[in-house]
Design goal:
mainly alpha
């Protein structure tokens, strides 16, 4: 059974990528670790400064709408575009609707 060279290159790329991902996971903090950088630096800043910075009483709304506004706008644009594409794909042509009426 002969394996093609392109398949060997693809297999090597997958193995290398998997090894790099496993290596990177070793440096991540434990799940739910209260001493992780996200819990000691990022979260307290949002909790302390959300209301003064944004004048929004809800911290989640402040983060999504003000701090990450461009990211949220991008996600909304992608979902809107997908919805319009689905409507365009699933619509019935006019001539087909006329035939159904007659």
């Amino acid at each position: 059974m002969k394996i093609m060279p392109l398949k060997m290159v693809a297999f090597a790329a997958v193995v290398l990528t998997g090894a790099l991902l496993l290596y990177g996971v070793e440096d991540m903090p434990a799940w739910g670790d209260p001493q992780s950088p996200a819990n000691t630096h990022v979260s307290p800043r949002y909790i302390e400064n959300a209301i003064p910075d944004t004048a929004t009483p809800n911290i989640v709304t402040a983060v999504l709408a003000d701090y990450r506004g461009y990211d949220t706008l991008g996600e909304t644009t992608v979902i809107f575009t997908a919805g319009i594409a689905c409507l365009y794909i699933l619509r019935r042509p006019r001539n087909q609707r006329r035939k159904e009426r007659d």
